[in-house]
Structures are given as C-alpha cells and as structure tokens.
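Q: What residues go here?
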C-alpha cells in the first residue's frame, strides 16, 4: 500500500528482457534504497514492484507480462525518469490517498496549459474507468496522488503545483505521452457492494416468486 506521495525521482539504469515476455528493471533511487531489502515493495510510476536486489543506491525488480500489458512500464528505456515511493508503514503520514500500486488503465496526456502558479493537464480516461472518477476526488497518475479538477466524458483534468512539476515525471510529460492510472479503490469496493446487494434482492424476488 502507498499514499501517492513520490519520495524520489529515480532513473532507469537498465532494462533486460527475460524469457516469456517478462523484463528485469534496474533503477537508481538512493532514497528508497536506503532501507530497502529483498522482497520489499516499491512503487515505480505507480506500479507496485518487488525488490529482487539492492546494490549501491540502485535496485532491480522483475516485471511480468501482465504488468507490461496493463501499464506504461513497457515504454521505459535506459535513462527514463521514474517516480519512486516505498510502501507505507503504520507510522507513515497519509499525505495523499490510499494507493495499491495496481494499475487500472493507461491514459494519454491530451493537453497542458500553463497558469500563473500551476499547470492544468488533461488526461484521457480509458473506457470503463470514468464511473470511478469524480470531480474533487482522488486519482493516482504515474503513482502521484492528485485531485480531479474537472471531469469530461472521456477525460479528466488535474492541476499541478510547482513542487509536483519539479519533483515528479509529470513535469516532463508531453501531449501524447502515456501515464499509468489507478482510480480510488474505495469507489470500486462501493460498486461491488452495491452489485452484491442488487444480486441478493434479485434472488429474494425470484425465491418469493
């Protein structure tokens, strides 16, 4: 579990293709590596990965085909910047929102518009995700916890403050770039509970009939 507050802007040092369309990433991140060990979880652009090895301020992680297919990690190359965040502890401040590190879909940056003290960025929403996104609600973009400023039919807009622009990959994203999206897990749980309630009512009606 994560909070969507990026701790460090890391860098891809190596990308090795493994058998079965999997890959092994080597990433530089002295801050997140300071207390990391084998088996720990680190979010890379919002994707929860398991640490395989830590050496000299860098760590390696295996990425399975399922993750490559469902996220934008497959577009990374040597030198690519990445958002890094360690898993939360019971003493961690919840500065963002609850983020699982399980990507729901890949969006595309549609436009950027600079304002006086921030930037407005419009991002496309994959089919099926818009029902989980609400204005003023939370969404994770490349692992960054953001508040939805405006919601369209097939896109949403976020406001990026100078700190976010400077300290995360979102300051570098251009129109056409892909980003990982994770919607608020609470919205998915509410939907599931409501569906379960409807199914129960339908069965009760059928039994009464």
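A:
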């Amino acid at each position: 579990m994560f909070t969507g507050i990026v701790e460090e802007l890391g860098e891809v040092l190596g990308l090795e293709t493994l058998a079965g369309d999997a890959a092994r990433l080597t990433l530089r991140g002295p801050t997140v590596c300071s207390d990391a060990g084998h088996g720990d979880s680190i979010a890379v652009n919002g994707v929860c990965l398991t640490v395989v090895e830590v050496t000299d301020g860098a760590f390696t992680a295996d990425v399975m085909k399922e993750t490559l297919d469902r996220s934008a990690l497959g577009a990374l190359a040597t030198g690519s910047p990445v958002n890094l965040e360690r898993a939360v502890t019971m003493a961690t401040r919840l500065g963002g929102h609850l983020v699982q590190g399980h990507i729901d879909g890949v969006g595309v940056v549609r436009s950027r518009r600079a304002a006086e003290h921030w930037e407005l960025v419009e991002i496309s929403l994959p089919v099926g995700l818009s029902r989980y996104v609400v204005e003023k609600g939370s969404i994770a973009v490349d692992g960054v916890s953001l508040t939805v400023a405006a919601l369209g039919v097939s896109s949403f807009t976020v406001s990026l403050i100078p700190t976010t622009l400077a300290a995360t990959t979102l300051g570098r994203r251009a129109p056409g770039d892909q980003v990982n999206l994770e919607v608020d897990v609470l919205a998915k749980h509410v939907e599931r509970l409501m569906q379960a309630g409807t199914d129960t009512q339908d069965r009760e009606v059928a039994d009464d009939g």
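A: Context that may help when evaluating the design: Residues 185-208 form the longest helix (24 residues). Helices lie at 30-33, 65-70, 162-167, 185-208.
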